Amino acid sequence: xxxxxxxxxxxxxTHNAGKIREIYEMLAPFGIAVKSAAELRLPEPEETGSxxxxxxxxKAHAAAKASGLVALADDSGLSIEALDGAPGIYSxxxxxxxxxxxxxxxxxxxxxxxxxxxAPEKRRAHFVAVLAVAAPDGExxxxxxxxxxxxxxxxxxxxxxxxxPIFQPDGHSRTFGEMSAEEKHGTAGGEALSHRxxxxxxxxxxxxxxxx
Length: 212
Known about the structure:
Blueprint: E1 8-12, H1 17-27, E2 32-36, H2 52-67, E3 71-80, H3 101-114, E4 124-134, E5 140-151, E6 167-169, H4 181-185, H5 195-208
Parallel strand pairs: 1-2, 1-3
Antiparallel strand pairs: 3-4, 4-5, 5-6
């Protein structure tokens, strides 16, 4: 049976305020009310998957089962070519227990410097986001979005969250940290730029735009 999202609440399986804000902004036009994991008092499951998709599915299943609602989960991160794909699924862990991404960004630059990756062409990277939507009955689907770009230093911009201030997407002279949410999401009349917005566009076409 196909999952249907009707106007009403959906559980969003994250405690990350930045992700909650972005997902809320993208769901709002469809009349979908966001209930965060914190609001629903959902525990954070251990992310034992070896891929973004596995972790997204794990979180979505856990939230749907615990809340009795259709649940949306995101797993995302930054993959850097010169670092053999790191930090990858461990992107959040590089920020340490205090989740300080200034520490994570500094660590990225230090590792790139140590690898001799100082020129832009040696600092290629891409963001990946996988959205998983799960029903309480166990049905689940996933949607993946990617955004390619270059790692810059020093960080630029105070918008967004995570590694946004050091990621300059291809075809642009500003980092995600210097862009508005509308620019990143494509709601300002342009195409979706961010990995999460691109994954969400696939999710929306599959569920939201056909559920009315």
